[in-house]
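Input set for joint prediction.
Command: fold jointly, output tokens.
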Amino acid sequence: MEPLILGLGWLGLYAPLGLAAIGSSVGCMRAGSAACGALLEVESGYGRFIGVAALPSSITIYGIVVTMSLRRELTLENSPGIFGLGVLTGLALLYCAIAQGDACTASINASKSKQEVFGISIAPAALIEGFAVFAFVFALVLAADIPK
Amino acid sequence: MAEQYITLISSLPYLPPFEKAERSPITRLKLEQRLHILKPDDARQLVIAEALVSWRMSLSKPKTDQEMLLRCCAALQDISHPALREFVEFRLDQQTILAALRLRQHVFESSFLEQVNGASRWARVIASNWDSPDFKLAAVYPWIPQARTYIEANDAGALDRLMMGIIWQQLSRIADSNRFGFEAVFAFVLKWDILQAWLARDAGKAKSRFQELIKEVQNDS
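tokens >
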């Protein structure tokens, strides 16, 4: 039983980073595909499409920080807490990154034809970033309560 | 969500409503270049559907109903994408109803059924309600009374506009069901075709084309 509990602890420790990286990859791939398509259609403003396509990458940074904050010597007392916090934070970051990629895709698609909506079209992606920040901040707060 | 279709959709321009468009936002050549991203099977199905139900397919329309029916049956067997198949069937239903509205004054229901049997699921319903003004299908297709009015008034322009509008709306609904998938791609291509047809309207050309068709029919008979 002990190795299983410690194993779950390790899983929880790396989950925020691993899952956030997967989500960011998918998000950036989708938004990047849209950006490449939009480059064929527009005559200028290429940089901002690529910039928007890179937005989901920020979520991996939150994953790195959460993993660092959870890092400690794993024991039978702290492993379940690390597992729960790490996996749930990771799943939240994974979904936020994918959803943000889709929001960026829609934003790029809308603003390529109507450039004046560029700013407002990023708002949904920014809102999703906000949810990722909530998950990130509260993971840090709760990580402080897990025994060292 | 296939990533290559995200690229494809994003590379296509905004298509304005056909009645408001002043020019085509993309040429056929450019559109075909972009469509090279399509998966081979999707591209094949799109070509088949386009030849069968695009607005301007009438340019290569078969001369007899039987030929047309054979073409429809063969095409439907080759179209496996559910949304595309549903749209093709929608167009065939629409064409069958229009044919019935046009033919009603000239032929009997048995003759009509013989001509179109197999083209639409509504063929038998139409034949059994031959004397009803809207074939008792107005609840399913609310446009039938208006189309009937235009046919009776010989107003081909208004009928075209009505039909184009209905197809446009249907394609928009299909595209909304999967904004970055094959649905959005084929909806764009078929809407672009309607837009081209709308922009190419020319009374003079239509008249000379009509005269050509009359000559063709006279030479055949």
